[in-house]
Amino acid sequence: MTFQAYIDTIKAKTGLDPDDFLVIAREKNLLGDGVKAGPVMAWLKEDYGLGPGHGMALVSVFRDRTQGIPSQADRFEKHFAGAKSVWQLAYDELMKAVMEFGHDISVQPTDTYLSLLRGKGKFAVIAISAKRMDVGLKLQGKEPTDRLALGGNWNTMVTHRVQLFDGVEIDDELVGWLREAYDRAA
Predict the structure, then answer these.
(1) Neighbour-count burial for 34-63, b at 16+ CB within 10 Å, e otherwise
(2) Of 21, 44, 67, at which residue does a domain stop?
(3) How many domains does the chain have?
(4) Taking a C-beta distance cutoff of 8 angstroms, is the pair 159, 149 a contact?
């Protein structure tokens, strides 16, 4: 179901639109410093019989209207905030090598990872935590190795994953796999 379909169903079921729910949520003090999904979802289920998908659609509206939509720069910076900042130099080094593949590369931050795209085609993702940097690659049919593991459930957007625990692990082998994924995205 699309986001708009959720909103349309909510209106049809309750007679209320997202702005109406926003007013009620404010009156119930559910929109304090940062929208918390749990209490909002419980209220929507109890008072309106709305399920999780419909509830999360309204939570998303509440967050957008009360907190604003973060800029791309803010979303990018979040990946290197706090304890994750130790990975900034390693990421910069890796991206310096990747950007040499071609002029058609862009980085699109999401809330959980950084997407590497060739034009509109995603060829890799990078996820940062305080302890490691994960590089996911789209390499359909490539045999895994000790280092190049199958992606499994880690991220369904990619087929393989390389876990880095130290910036020294950024080497020609990793850059080669990224190059291969980039070439396949043509």
Answers:
(1) ebeeeebbebbeeebebeeebbbbbbbbbb
(2) 67
(3) 2
(4) no
| Tokens at 22, concatenated | 């926003």
pTM of this structure: 0.66
Q: At what angle do helices 88-99 and 172-184 cross, to 10 degrees?
A: 50
8 CB contacts (<8 Å, ≥6 apart)?
A: none
Domain that holds residue 149: 73-184
Residue 79 shares a structural domain with residue 162? yes
- Please, what is the end-to-end C-alpha distance for the chain in angstroms? 31
Give the span between the Cα atoms of 158 and 171, in whole angstroms.
Answer: 20
Q: Which residues lie closer than 8 Å to 81 by C-beta, 6 or more apart?
A: none
Same domain for 33 and 99, yes or no, is no
pLDDT per residue as tens digits for the range 84-124: 999 999 999 999 999 999 999 999 998 889 999 999 999 99
Sign (positive or negative) of CA dihedral 85, 88, 91, 93 = negative
133 plus 166 within the same structural domain: yes
Write the pLDDT tens digit of every residue in 113-168: 999 999 999 999 999 999 999 999 999 999 999 999 999 999 888 999 999 999 89
Task: Give the C-alpha separation, 116 to 84, whole Å.
Answer: 19
